Amino acid sequence: MTETPARKPRPRRTFSAFGDVRKMPSEYEIVTHKQNWTMRQNRAAAFEQNPSSAPNLWFLTYRDNSPLQARDWDGFRDPDALTYRAYVGLQAEAEAKVAGVLEAHAGAGSDAALSEDRWPCWATCSPRRATCVTASSRLRRTSATWRPVPT
């Protein structure tokens, strides 16, 4: 019996739009590469409508003829490589931390020394609520603290 020679491993597949690259594109590259279809080459207008339609004229005036131009808009890369999915994850983490701090503050009774006559909002606000409607008219933001507005 003859032994079959070992096959050469097949190269990893990648997206053909990225050219002949040997590495798998990142999530950021996948969701941002050539996604603006209104910028395609050899187009008569941005949208598949009459070139004199209102949206096409707007794009021609305010985008194509804008003083702000770049040779290759797809060449821009966000240094943070932030996608919507990553942004939502970061915001969820930040909100969880803030909620934890507010719950710990409320659980420790740190606001027990506040009097209701001076700060009427504190008795009715939930620790999860970031703003208080009743206090917004009586408080002014100064640097890092809220203080009562003199009446």
List the main descriptive attributes of the protein structure presented here.
151 residues, 2 strands, two-stranded antiparallel ribbon, single chain, mainly alpha
Topology:
Elements: H1 27-32, H2 54-64, H3 84-107, H4 133-136, E1 139-142, E2 145-148
Antiparallel strand pairs: 1-2
Structure description:
The protein folds into two domains: 16-75, no CATH class; 84-148, no CATH class. Helices cover 30% and strands 5% of the residues. It has helices at residues 27-32, 54-64, 84-107, 133-136; strands spanning 139-142, 145-148. The protein has a two-stranded antiparallel ribbon with strand order 1-2.
Q: What is the spatial order of strands in the main beta sheet?
A: 1-2
Classify the secondary structure makeup into a structural class: mainly alpha
Spell the H/E element sequence. Answer: HHHHEE
Rg over alpha carbons:
28 Å
Task: Please sum up the structure shown.
This protein has 151 residues and is mainly alpha-helical.
